[in-house]
Design goal:
Preprotein translocase SecY subunit; 18 helices; transmembrane helix; 2 domains; disordered C terminus; mainly alpha; membrane
Length: 438
């Protein structure tokens, strides 16, 4: 406890870090306040029940603003969608590949295209959002006027959320966009704990403590999955520049076991609602369609979880393949005079790295699938649905990833000022700054 208090004092004794933390807190408060501001022309008391299904997942990411018909009703989700589209385009479209290689000017151009695409996606999603989630009886003004004003405000709200995220990244601590998602998820945690406590009653304290212990070990497992890397040794040839000798030391390239992050779960989760929606069209005329609709509407069923897990494994391989390029890594190593001991530079090195990625991606994808279906097991075991979402899935992975990234940034500030870091050793385990990326 004494070490923790000392660390906190050290954090706030660094002026730049203190200002960044206060900026982050202030911007997050603005974001949370905005999530409670209802669109003009909507009677909140007439809104429907809490969102479920894919809408419930989005509502979790946005901290409840989706179901409240807030001006931040779409939050930064359109921006994330636009970013994913641009990321995929940089893999398959030569024009975007060229922009990606142009350095800072190319990144600025990609950011401009992302912003324009975000506005277009927000307008398209806004129409569906208003139509699907806001009942007619909740709209107290002319519907045409409401549709026009709501689309403008939703678009402005999304762009403002994007601005908040960029300011947190620039003036605060951590990745701003990820921080907004995390704060939305964490905002549901107190209510989930209270709901779980009430459901257990006065005699369920021991059971609640047991659930907390299990949750602790689940979080530890997710941290291990997030941080696990396979280190590839790289030897750099000695070079004499200006009478000084450079290189000659051995460094490492870290290849993450879970290189795709939460994206496979997000992709699979989006597609898992299609069978139930499609089956509803023929449910009255077909027993099979009725069975499919019932089965895939229940995310605790073994059929749902089996298909969900298989899709996550497939998407993990797909997303890893498009984000990690062994040929590019091998080419960069060769250009910088580096080589893997015992492996020839160029093509053989690319094949060697590709084989390693293939071997570690399979166990990583299986573990990721297990984390994704953990909430279903928690619900079957008697945990309330609100609290069960923190036992795994996208929510837990996002929270763990954002918290670790933020701690690393704080760690770097402390070490730069010669303070002892967040960890006893003074350096967080698997800190990317301790590796060399070719």
């Amino acid at each position: 406890m004494k070490k923790f208090i000392t660390t906190v004092k050290n954090i706030f004794s660094i002026e730049d870090l203190r200002i960044r933390i206060l900026n982050t807190i202030g911007l997050l408060i603005v974001f949370r306040i905005g999530s409670f501001v209802v669109l003009p022309g909507v009677d909140p008391s007439r809104l429907g029940e809490a969102a479920t299904g894919i809408f419930g997942l989005i509502d979790t990411f946005l901290g409840g603003s989706f179901s409240r018909a807030s001006i931040f009703g779409l939050g930064i989700m359109p921006y994330i969608s636009a970013s994913i589209v641009l990321q995929l385009l940089t893999v398959g479209v030569p024009y975007f590949q060229k922009l990606q290689k142009e350095g800072e000017s190319g990144r600025k151009r990609i950011n401009q295209i992302t912003r324009v695409l975000t506005i277009l996606i927000t307008l398209a999603q806004g129409v569906g959002y208003i139509t699907a989630t806001i009942p007619d009886e909740a709209i107290v003004i002319n519907k045409t006027l409401f549709m026009t004003s709501a689309l403008i405000l939703l678009t402005a709200g999304t762009m403002f959320c994007m601005w908040i995220g960029e300011k947190i990244t620039e003036k605060g601590i951590g990745n701003g966009i990820s921080m907004l998602i995390m704060i939305g998820i964490i905002s549901a945690l107190p209510g989930a704990i209270i709901s779980e406590s009430l459901s257990k009653g006065g005699g369920g304290i021991l059971l609640l403590l047991l659930e907390a212990v299990i949750l602790f070990f689940v979080v530890v497992g997710v941290v291990a999955l997030t941080e696990a890397v396979r280190r590839i040794p790289v030897q750099y040839a000695k070079q004499v520049v200006g009478g000084k000798v450079y290189g000659g030391q051995r460094q490492y390239i870290p290849i993450k076991v879970n290189a795709s992050g939460v994206m496979p779960i997000i992709f699979a989760q989006s597609l898992m609602f299609l069978p139930a929606l499609i089956a509803q069209i023929w449910a009255e005329d077909s027993d099979i369609a009725s069975y499919i609709g019932t089965t895939f509407s229940d995310f605790t069923s073994w059929q749902y979880n089996l298909v969900f897990a298989v899709m996550i494994i497939l998407f993990t391989f797909f997303y890893t393949a498009i984000t990690v390029n062994p040929e590019q890594i091998a080419e960069d190593m060769k250009r910088n005079g580096g080589f893997v001991p015992g492996i020839k530079p160029g093509g053989p090195t690319a094949d060697f790295i590709d084989n390693i990625i293939s071997r570690i991606t399979l166990p990583g994808s299986i573990l990721l699938a297990l984390v994704a279906i953990m909430p279903a097991f928690a619900i079957i075991a008697g945990v309330s649905s609100e609290f069960a979402q923190f036992y795994g899935g996208t929510s837990l992975l996002i929270m763990v990833g954002v918290i670790l990234d933020t701690l690393r940034q704080i760690e770097s500030y402390l070490l730069m000022r010669h303070y002892e870091g967040m960890m006893k050793s003074g350096n967080m385990k698997n800190d990317p700054s301790s590796y060399a990326v070719a």
